[in-house]
Amino acid sequence: MFAPGKDVSRLTYFGIFTLQHRGQESAGIAVSNHKRIASHKDMGLVEQVFDEDILQELTGDIAIGHTRYSTMGSSNLQNCQPIVIESAKGKSLALAFNGNLVNAKELYLKMMKDDFAFIGTSDGEIIARLLGFYLERDYPLIDAIRETMRQIVGAYSVVVLARAKLVAFRDPCGIRPLFLGKLNNGGFVFSSETCAFHAVGAELIREIEPGEIVIIDKDGIHSVVGREAICSALCIFEFIYFARPDSEIYGRCLYTARRHMGEQLAIEYPVSADMVVPIPDTGRPAAIGYAKQSKIPYGEGLIKSRYIARTFIKPEQRQREMGVKLKLTPLRRELEGKHIVLVEDSIVRGTTTKGIVGLVKEFGGAKEVHLRITAPPYRYPCFYGIDTGAKDELIAASRSINEIREYIAADSLGYLSIEGLIKAVALPKEHFCLACFDNNYPIPIEQFEGGKFSIEKIRS
Fold this sequence. Notes:
[4Fe-4S] cluster binds at residues 235, 382, 433, 436. Strand 8 and strand 9 form a beta hairpin. It is globular and about 70 Å long. Helix 5 (123-136) packs across helix 6 and helix 11 runs parallel beside helix 13 (351-363). It has 460 residues and is α+β, with helices and mostly antiparallel strands. It folds into two domains: 8-233, Glutamine Phosphoribosylpyrophosphate, subunit 1, domain 1 (4-Layer Sandwich), CATH 3.60.20; 252-427, Rossmann fold. Helices cover 33% and strands 24% of the residues. The two termini are 38 Å apart.
């Protein structure tokens, strides 16, 4: 956020609070007053990490914030963002990053040989230290970013606080979202999602283009090409699960797109049932769509605890499994003896879904559960910012749909087709990365090795 004269730390707090769904492991804010960068970050949710006293200490005109969902490096304090790189030459910077570097291990090994000093083990720190290296050697800011972009391979949407400037840049395929907005009373803001603009009193200007660098300073907004765009390949999971339903991408409201997914599911996988029930919260728009198209009554059959984080993006498998029991409670009076259509956004590992089907049948008393999924079978790992782990962790990679149905104990199972998904979002297929469904990776993944903890393994 670039907003001279405004309470930027508080506005940034509101912004990252709105983006809490994108990561619940840690949170942080860095602020510049043009002379120095002050920051605060810690493990936990935004409201746990910050209080009034901390926000009052973070004074300045420019700020960036971050909520972390770890895809490279452990979930610990050393890997919290924003990452601050101090400089004796007055060229300090703070950086926040969403995505995943395919060549993180290769770059880390090379940089260690060149005597780079690392605090943590995240790929975000690799980007920050590369950028700091070039700034220390008196590269102009744009040239330093271009050189950094030339070396990093993968998915990245990055914001940088560099003393008197706020900068954003995006990978040449635009895999992770990034938007530019204008504050209603002056100033500009970048965000991973448009839903945060409402919270801070901003209006959407446009999306940051693949390969673009955007610089904001006292002279206004400047845009240059960092790397030539290779393609437009936004992660389709932003539409299916990750982004909030009140966000917009490519001019499409995600709530509407998810409702259309449910309508298409009802066309592709009809069933005779008594009630359509969503798995809250991301399954709700699709369940409404399924009910509308199928003429089956919609109802709430699962109550979600408002105090538990999203199950899919918890870092450890045991936490995911326990999360199901703590997160959802079945409404037995609504479910008992009924044939239920249960609508979910996706099945990745299968353990969460198995637990939910069990809840609905055993504790809810449902006679039948017909599971409908708004994503196609998730068969291939993501290397671009979703922590799906290795291929052998993905249930659809090694089992047929009927075998998955048997494992999760559903009476029937239907996945939305890729064609149906594209029809629902009403955008060209070429706009998206669908690699987790079709094994067609827009950025080469040959350099990826060692998994999420590859850098820890080097240091141990």
